[in-house]
Amino acid sequence: MSLTYSCDDCSGLNNFHNVSLEIKIDLYRFLISLWPIWGLFTPILMFILFMGYTMLLMFLPDGVLGTLIFWVLMISMATLSHLIPHDPESVLNVTL
User: Phi and psi at residue 57, in whole multiples of 5°?
Assistant: First the structure.
């Protein structure tokens, strides 16, 4: 009995590792890019935003209607994100 894992086509496993590496890199880049705006609150706010987007999917209906609502919400949030103040002084009212 062998406890080693072997497969004929392990390309799916390699793709999984590549995707997880990309997610880690993107998470780090997102953290670095938002740090000047939110400072120490950045990891907390990133977690809250991640959980909010994840839980949003639970409240949408199944099928085509849920898919359409999802994309309308995503596009509108991306569009409205330009209204968020993007300089640290206007966000925290602190001069750096």
Answer: -65, -25
Answer yes or no: is 32 within a domain: yes
**What residues contact residue 92 under an 8 Å CB cut-off, 6+ apart?**
39
Q: What is the mean pLDDT of residues 3-22?
A: 62
The model's pLDDT over 50-96, given as tens digits with 9 standing for 90+, comes to 888 788 888 888 899 998 998 998 888 888 877 776 665 655 565 55
On whether residue 2 sits in a domain, the answer given is: no
Tally the domains of the chain: 1
C-alpha 46/C-alpha 42 separation (Å) is 6
Domain span at residue 28 reads 11-92
| 49 part of a folded domain | yes
8 Å CB contact between 89 and 96: yes
Tell me which H or E stretch contains 51: helix 42-56
Contact present, 13 and 7 (Cβ < 8 Å): yes
Residue 6 domain-assigned (yes or no)? no
